[in-house]
Specification:
The chain has 402 residues and is α/β, with parallel strands linked by helices. The protein is built from 13 helices and 15 strands.
Length: 402
């Protein structure tokens, strides 16, 4: 694909975990279907797409997840699929739900609503000293009162890979329904729902699969739920189908994992602190500076054509990295990134930190003038950020429940 450019140079997009760059073919399908939708309406578009929506995309999803095509469903997103699943879960006051410190705010919102509705207990599986989930704690506390277990495969907070297959084997002899959020692993790691042994697996299509926003999917084991989540727009579903085909082709090509190179840049940058937990990470790295705010660094990098994400504690309110309320930066890499992207990130980061230290050292009026000059230099130039639609969920501050 033709990578986007910024100021005449290739944009270093290090935010695939937030919003992946759509390949040209995916963008073309989305544009064509959106135009047809606008002219003839969604019903006519869905009819014209025929087997793409009702057969082909599910066959691709089944192949991706290692499950029968008939056990996959499309949704507006992973959070919408999980909410539909939770709304149909019948629990009582004696039942217990397990979640983890890696759970995102959208899933936690659904779990808290379920707890308030059924008066069940919501418990948080603790982390070990090395940052991994404490499987020994799970073995010691698992009984037939545990009715639902929700685990994130790869943490959006800092990229920790959780042992979802080990957890599946642990839960298999028991009554607990097992839900896995694969939003930040599918398209980046092999994901086999059958091997995991989960009853529900949800994912977004716009992250490492690099499809359009507003479309996700789920694997639901037979008998898991009766209802269905909110369906995506036909244009988005058709574009996801193309993204899945593109991913299958790209996955067979040689690929260098750039996460170690990215980690090395952060580790040798003075003042930077890695927010790592767990023994294994995939695709995502979180970090922050001891003195310079994350927002200032992100803006400075964006002016230099390097795109990454600023995290806030409310996105993962139970995670240790956000317990002090401090913001951080999150960079993510995928197979469409190159070593040159990491080199450009290192150069831009050094420039931003030097600029911010200089601004802190000069009088306030001089600092304001310097910032105004930098902003004026970029006025009228295209932003490297893709516009995101307003989502209906806001921030939610939660407390650890035991």
């Amino acid at each position: 694909m033709n990578a986007p450019t910024y100021h005449g140079e290739r944009t270093a997009h290090l935010n695939t975990a937030g919003t992946g760059r759509m390949p040209d073919g995916v963008r073309a399908v989305l544009a064509e279907c959106t135009a047809l939708d606008d002219r003839f309406g969604p019903a006519a578009l869905e009819e014209s797409l025929g087997g793409v929506l009702h057969t082909e995309v599910h066959e691709r999803l089944g192949g991706l997840l290692g499950v029968p095509a008939g056990d996959t469903v499309l949704a507006a997103g992973a959070a919408e699929a999980f909410e539909a699943f939770v709304c149909g879960t019948g629990l009582g006051p004696r039942d217990r739900i397990w979640t983890t410190p890696h759970e995102g705010v959208a899933h936690l919102t659904a779990l808290h609503a379920l707890r308030d509705r059924t008066r069940c207990r919501l418990e948080v599986v603790p982390l070990r000293a090395d940052g991994d989930l404490d499987l020994d704690w799970m073995r010691a506390h698992l009984d037939e009162d545990v009715a639902l277990v929700s685990v994130v495969h790869v943490s959006s907070a800092c990229g920790t890979v959780n042992p979802v297959e080990d957890i599946g084997r642990l839960l298999a002899p028991h009554r607990a329904r097992y839900a896995v959020d694969a939003s930040h692993s599918v398209g980046r790691l092999p994901v086999d729902a059958a091997r995991i042994g989960c009853h529900l697996l949800t994912a977004d299509g716009w992250r490492f699969l690099r499809g359009p926003e507003g479309v996700g999917f789920a694997y639901a084991a037979p008998g898991t739920w009766d209802g269905l989540p909110q369906a995506p727009a036909p244009a988005a579903a058709a574009a996801l189908n193309t993204a899945l085909a593109h991913h299958t082709a790209a996955a067979s090509l040689p690929y260098e994992d750039l996460l170690p190179r990215l980690r090395a840049v952060v580790e040798r940058t003075p003042g930077m602190e890695l927010l790592a937990s767990g023994r294994e990470q995939a695709g995502i790295l979180a970090f922050r500076h001891g003195e310079i705010p994350a927002a200032a660094i992100r803006r400075g990098l964006a002016r230099r054509g390097v795109v990454l994400w600023k995290t806030v504690a409310h996105e993962n309110p139970l995670h240790p990295a956000g317990q002090d309320g401090a913001t951080a930066l999150r960079a993510s890499v995928h197979h469409d990134n190159t070593a040159q992207d990491i080199d450009r990130f290192e150069q831009a980061l050094a420039e931003v930190l030097r600029e911010e230290r200089h601004a802190a050292a000069v009088p306030a009026e001089g600092a304001l003038a310097a910032v105004a000059a930098a902003r004026a230099a970029d006025f009228g130039r295209p932003s490297p950020y893709r516009a995101r639609p307003v989502r209906r969920r806001g921030h939610l501050t939660l407390h650890r429940a035991t």
